[in-house]
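Ticket opened by: R.M.
Priority: normal
Category: complex prediction / small molecule

The reporter submitted a protein together with aspartic acid and asked that the result be attached to this ticket for the collaborator who will pick it up next week. Submitted input follows.
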Amino acid sequence: MTTAPDPTTSMRTHRCGEVRPEDVGRRVRVCGWVSRRREHGEHLAFVDLRDHTGLVQCVVPGTVDVRSEYVLAVEGVVRARPAGTANPDLATGEVEIQECTVEVLSVAEPPPFAVDDRVDADEHLRIRYRFVDLRRPRMQANLRLRAVINAALRAGMERQGFCEVETPLLWAPTPEGAREFVVPSRLQHGTCYVLPQSPQLAKQLLMVGGMDRYYQIARCLRDEDLRADRQFEFTQLDVEASFVGQEDVLRFVSEAVLDAAERATGTRPSEIERLTWAEAMDRFGTDKPDLRFGMELVDLTAVFAGTEVRALAAPCVKGIVVEGGGETTRSRLDQLTDQARQLGGKGLAWFRVLPTGEGGTGLDGPLARFLTEDDVAGLLVATGAAAGDLVLVVADEHLTVCTVLGRLRVLLGGRPVSEGPYRFAWIVDFPLFEGIDGDGNPVAAHHPFTMPHPDDLDRLESDPTSVRSQSYDLVLNGWELGSGSVRIHRADVQSRIFAVLGIGPEEAESRFGFLLGAFRHGAPPHAGFAVGIDRLVAIFAGEESIREVIAFPKTQSGSDPMTGAPKPVAPRVMADLGLREVPAPE
Ligand code: ASP
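Result attached by the on-call engineer:
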């Protein structure tokens, strides 16, 4: 917890949670909210007073007319609690403040829910009354942890010579491809600003401007559906540097992120592991592998190369072993098969590994009796599965096999994202394009300024989907924490990329003209990255949802029940902006 070193203000001498046996005999004054009040006959009242540091018990002679969440200033003398009444669960549990006088600073309506971590309040209600919810120790701890992480990231970047620059919120479209929030212009009717989905172009312009090493704790806005790990607004540690390559960026970001992890958890995680995208897909079936557990995908293509079993004859066959999964029920296996189909697979072959006589093993499952002895032996050797295990096999195109098994692996072996240990991974060498669109043009996997891998540049036109990019992601416990790339700073390479993407010179000029124009004035080689701070904090706070680490989040439907946003605006405001409401399109 970050608390001021000296608690004294003109209104108090101590914070509630910090009164200790050393203070016995001292006259103190504390301020806070009433957590609980108990009357002890007519002569004594007990008030538990709470602030962000915790609770202290105050003993008031006579009765006292206060209720839950009233704001009080209480003055009295610290005394040891009578023998046998100490509360070991409370940091202040050995003492109490006696002979108290109470000043009511504010009265309060009955709270909409108890300000207590042990009480589970409805989330909508919590967001509606966030100002009450924030008083809970859990929310206090989360927001303070967020501040600690932000400070560590800032210090990490500053130490490495980065300079913080604020970039505009009223901006023009950015090439990341997410739906953007638009802000109508009052002075130029019919035109709009766009709230930046990231400071991507601004930070590249800063490089052209000679800033050399830039960072910003930047708010980004995307008008996309909300989920546990996504809000309309989120915060990134945004980074860009000149005269650097991929290795430099990985080093800068690793340093700052590991610093933050160390500040948050007390231990510095080991060096960040590195996997190529191809390796991550092959071994874990995803580009955001959770490295906290094994269950890696095992290649069985060679084992089933000449198989007669149609369900297993495919360009790619892989399996995962569920240790001790042999007991899985038939209905659960049917469910998994359905899931595999929903994920795009044709089906799922499952085999229970049985103990057979003389130390050998056999397989059980719908396809088991069609396998040859060599198939069985090959499968067991390749997977290392033992009696009592379950082997799940998918045969299909490579990407489908990986995706299906990757999901099943997490479903069957995964743990909550925020549970330690913390396993970071760099994923490098992403493909430059993620497929081909309906018009036959490749689709950029990142944004169109991502530098291709130098070794693959000669295949850009002939075999674009085989070209790797100099882009990289940071992953933690199966969550993508951020991404970045080396940018294209040379006009010739950029023109080739636009040509491959089917973006003509006019379109390029209208969409990115100001960046391309700036590049004609001398662009240094540059590269950057952005780390999602909400996700990073959520994981270290032990939270599954980023809403728990955001002071004022939106609900799943994108509204804020506290402020009522979004709200209609007055007709006058609409007119000022040159706007008129029209029926929504069908
Ligand atoms: N602008 C990118 C993003 O927001 C990050 C980067 O490439 O620096 O994901």
